[in-house]
Amino acid sequence: MIDVIIKILEKRLCDRCLGRQFSQLLSRIKNEERGKIIRNFIAMLIDGKLIDYSKINPNNFYGFKFKQNKEFAKNLKKEECWLCNDLFEKIDSLVKKAEKKLKKIEFNNFLVGSKISEEIFSKEEKIWEITGIEFVESIKFEINRELGNRIRKIFKKPVNYKNPEVVVLFDFEKNDVEIQINSLYIFGYYKKLKSGIPQCKWGTPGKYKTSVQQIIAKPIMKATKGVNNKFSGSGREDIDARCLDWRPFVIEIIKPKKRNVNLKKIERQVNKSKKVKVKGLKFCEKYIVKKIKAETGDKVYRVLVKFDRPVDKKELKKLKNLVGIISQRTPIRVAHRRADKIRKRSVKSIKYKQINKKTIELKVEASSGLYIKELVTGDNGRTKPSVSEILNVKAIPKDLDVIKIEKPKDL
Ligand SMILES: [Zn+2]
Fold it and tell me: Rounded to the nearest 10 degrees, how much is the dihedral formed by the CA atoms of 50, 53, 57, 63?
């Protein structure tokens, strides 16, 4: 070990970089202290002329007072660490910078990252060629641990490796700190009580004044001070359909400055809109978005159907033939934004009630993704079978509502 130390001290190394090469020896002391111990011991060996110190860089002992070997101690100069360029001395000012930036945002946990020049890593490799890697620690590890500890002590918040709310990036090359604010995800259920409202604001730009997304997002954006938001529903109802059962959704708030917001209060604020209601708001993790989108539970729709001629009760019995597989080519009304293909969906059950000779109320229990309006009209033969086809009438859908949504099991 002494030979190895003599060899690596041919370069000027700071206490941390020296001690870090023996990091796996002895617990409860820091690399800096390890470095000091080693340096003091080597200094004694040099002072007593007990080793060959001819190749050692004397500046490794700047500030030492030698008793015997005064020759060696002549002209000692202060010199930067060959390995890290005194990188650790930049920590204080960078941590201050980070503190200032972090004080402006709310977070409950964090992670630090650091950017160090490639040159340092290649120099570290060179040192390891001498020391071997048995007892070493990498500089990246030490620096991140140090930075993490500093931030943890200042803000009294834990480090989170898996899903940190903020990532503090220390750039030692640019001498700067960047704060990456990760999104906040809120899960909940909504009902749409009024028709004529699209689910997402991007769906039909300009055409509609508001959307389910905007109504829900408004108080959330105000409370979190985020810069944007994304909305994911478990399926969606048509713009002119109401959704009278609770539909699961997740809203992602991008770059929120506040996180510990009162969700009960937000629920009340959304519910004042009278257009959209929400319940069960809770914070969730990112993976829930995928789960929500993949959700394919059955739905029950209620639609008023108008006929162009009177249809008697006996004829209506044929509607039961809709139960089964429906072959549905992409409807004309959505063909501009959806791929033209034939989808197979199923109708699980059909219930109907005659309102008058030319009107019925139809309840359709169907698999997710069935286009109900086209199930009624037939869409010029693109949906088969359909109400129009089966009854041999022209059937027009009115007042479409989603009245039941199968609840996801584990959300
Ligand atoms: Zn160093």
Answer: 20
Give the residue-averaged pLDDT of 364-390: 94
Q: In whole angstroms, what is the distance from residue 362 CA to residue 11 CA?
A: 85
Instruction: Read off the tokens for 288.
Output: 């829930």
Q: For residue 82, which of 139, 11, 19, 8 has the smallest C-alpha distance?
A: 11
CATH 3.30.70.3190 domain span(s) along the chain: 299-405
Q: What does the pLDDT read at residue 206?
A: 67
Answer yes or no: are the C-beta atoms of 198 and 212 closer than 8 Å: yes
Domain 299-405: which topology? Alpha-Beta Plaits (3.30.70)
For 107, 130, 207, the CA distances from 180, given in Å and listed in that order, are 11, 38, 35
Residue 64 dihedral angles phi and psi, to the nearest 5°: -80, 150
What distance in angstroms lies between residue 360's CA and the mean position of ligand 1's atoms? 82
Contact call for residues 331 and 379 (beta carbons, < 8 A): yes
> Which residue intervals of the chain bear CATH 3.30.2300.10?
87-181
Residue 236 CA to residue 222 CA, distance in Å, equals: 25
Residue found under tokens 């503190």: 99
Distance 167 CA to ligand 1 centre (A): 25
Map tokens 């000091």 to a residue.
36
β strands within 237-393, DSSP E = 242-254, 276-284, 299-307, 324-329, 342-356, 359-366, 383-384
| Average pLDDT over every residue of 370-391 | 95
Domain 184-294: CATH class, spelled out: alpha beta
Using the mean position of ligand 1's atoms as its centre, give its distance from the Cα of residue 15 in Å: 7
pTM to 2 decimal places: 0.85
The pLDDT of residue 201 is: 77
Which fold would CATH assign to domain 87-181?
THUMP fold (3.30.2300)
How are the residues of the chain apportioned to helix, strand and coil, as percentages rounded to the nearest 5? 35, 25, 40
Q: What is the mean pLDDT of residues 68-95?
A: 94
CA of 33 to the centre of ligand 1 (A): 13
Would strands 242-254 and 395-405 be described as parallel, antiparallel, or unpaired? parallel
pLDDT at 203 exceeding the cut of 60 = no
Residues noted as catalytic? 238
Question: How much distance in Å is there from the Cα of 120 to the middle of ligand 1?
Answer: 9
Q: Cα(83) to centroid of ligand 1, in Å?
A: 5
